[in-house]
Design a protein that fits this description.
Largest sheet: 5 strands, mixed
Helix content: 40-55%
CATH superfamily of the largest domain: Histidine kinase-like ATPase, C-terminal domain
Number of domains: 3
Radius of gyration: 48 Å
Number of strands: 12
Strand content: 15-25%
Strand order of the largest sheet: 6-8-9-11-10
CATH architecture of the largest domain: 2-Layer Sandwich
CATH class of the largest domain: Alpha Beta
Distance between the termini: 60 Å
Shape: rod-shaped
Number of helices: 9
Length: 453
């Protein structure tokens, strides 16, 4: 009960559906009762008209002066349906009882018109009429039979209400649900968006009562988009501004390395140059992250995955050879995807760079591409230590580095991969390359919209 109250307080749709259903039920009940009573009274009036017609008929036929002696009960034994016609004498009541099916002990002093009388423990509806010849006749029928007929007729009148009111309640609930469907579709569309997608909501199909809410959300998304764009510009501008002094420092360090100096000074100079290189790489990664988070128009021509692999291997092959890592592409399958080539190169390059850095010397890094039902699957496997399940979500955070990691890096590689994947609608899955030993990292990227070669 508490759960229903909570849902009622939180759901406008449920409150509206229940309120309308309750109104329909109450109005239907009132209309049903009114129809039942009206039909019941109308059935009684029709039965009274039957008594009047029988009386007029008997008046024309001049009823006999004495009541009939023969048994007037119907052959099927249904005495309640019997219409009793008798003459009222001036000399007192008839000795016949109501149960013998012949005549009723009616007082002769009854006035003309309709009467409801209790005769011998049974209730009868009696019509008394004086004929043109001066004779008085009585036409009677059991009230129980009349009530049964009236009740059945009234119930048949109410039966459509009993069927249609619940159906109308279901129709009302379905109509309310369909009215709220545009709001649910907008909510679902927003929920499916990438984290950096701040496009305005299409509000032309929304009801006019909900449209101001959508307009307010669009204004908020506009402010959020401008704030995100300012943040990206700041990162890009800061990286560009820092590039020049770092380049100058790198050139000065190279010239300084050409001069004669003690071994201790040369060691410190080598540390300085590594720090400068690391800072330059960090700036490059910050610029790449800012580009990955920016909106880019989709390319007109598809991109070959094998071509992207070749470009990445050309750039990173010296790094792999320096660490004696066997790197290559498995199979000759290729696929075309409608994704920007720079985005694909940046995504694959960061994955492969990360794999080379975390794979021990003498290890292996494999690249592969395959077609699936959902699109194109890119896979990068290495023979490094891998990632435990608890860390697979955190590695996408900017500047996050796994505990015990002594590799040089900025901690932005996988952040760039996730930013690009989110913008192009790709899905990233992490796992072990060697499931049995639970070692090695396997990164799979599912890209939609493939074109088979």
């Amino acid at each position: 009960m508490d759960g229903l109250k909570k849902r009622l307080s939180e759901s406008v749709q449920l409150r509206l559906s229940l309120t309308l259903a309750l109104v329909v039920l109450v109005l239907g009940a009132v209309a049903g009762v009114f129809s039942f009573l009206s039909a019941f009274e109308e059935a009684h009036e029709l039965q009274d008209d039957v008594l009047r017609q029988v009386a007029r008929l008997m008046a024309r036929q001049h009823p006999p002066p004495a009541p009939p002696v023969a048994d007037a009960r119907p052959a099927d034994g249904d005495e309640e349906s019997l219409v009793i016609v008798q003459r009222l004498d001036d000399g007192g009541q008839s000795r016949a009882g109501a149960d013998d099916g012949r005549t009723l002990p009616l007082p002769p002093t009854l006035g003309d018109g309709l009467h409801t009388l209790d005769v011998g423990g049974d209730t009868f509806r009696v019509l008394v009429k004086t004929t043109a010849s001066g004779q008085r006749i009585a036409v009677a029928q059991a009230s129980g039979f009349r009530n049964d007929i009236a009740r059945d007729s009234a119930l048949r009148t109410v039966m459509p209400f009993l069927v249609l009111v619940p159906a109308l309640g279901l129709i009302v609930a379905d109509l309310v649900r369909k009215m709220f469907r545009p709001i649910a579709s907008v909510s679902s569309a927003i929920d499916r968006r990438a984290e950096h997608d701040v496009r305005p909501i299409e509000d032309s199909h929304l009801p006019i009562e909900v449209r101001p809410f959508a307009v307010a959300i669009n204004r908020m998304l506009g402010r959020l988009g401008r704030a995100m764009e300012a943040e990206r510009r700041f990162i890009a501008d800061a990286a560009h501004e820092l590039r020049s002094p770092l380049t100058a420092l790198s050139l000065q360090a190279e010239r300084l390395a050409e001069t004669e100096m003690p071994d201790a000074a040369r060691t410190r100079l080598a540390d300085l140059r590594r720090g400068i290189d690391r800072a330059r790489k960090l700036l490059d990664q910050l610029l790449a992250l800012a580009r990955a988070q920016s909106d880019v128009e989709p390319p007109a021509a598809p991109v070959s995955i094998q071509g992207v692999y070749r470009r990445v291997l050309e750039d990173l092959m010296p790094m792999a050879e320096a660490r004696h890592i066997d790197i290559g592409v498995e199979g000759a399958d290729d696929a075309l995807v409608r994704v920007g080539e720079l985005d694909m190169v940046a995504m694959v390059k960061n994955l492969v760079d990360n794999a080379i850095r975390y794979t021990p010397e003498g290890g292996r890094v494999d690249l592969a591409v395959s077609r699936t039902e959902g699109g194109v699957e890119l896979r990068v496997d290495d023979t490094g230590p891998g990632l435990q399940a608890a860390e697979r979500e955190r590695v996408f955070d900017p500047f996050y580095r796994t505990p015990g990691n002594d590799q040089a890096g900025s901690g932005l590689g996988l952040s760039i991969v996730r930013a690009i994947a989110g913008r192009i609608g790709a899905e990233i899955r992490l796992g072990f390359s060697d499931v049995e030993k639970r070692t090695g990292l396997s990164v799979r990227i599912i890209l939609p919209d493939l074109t088979k070669l």
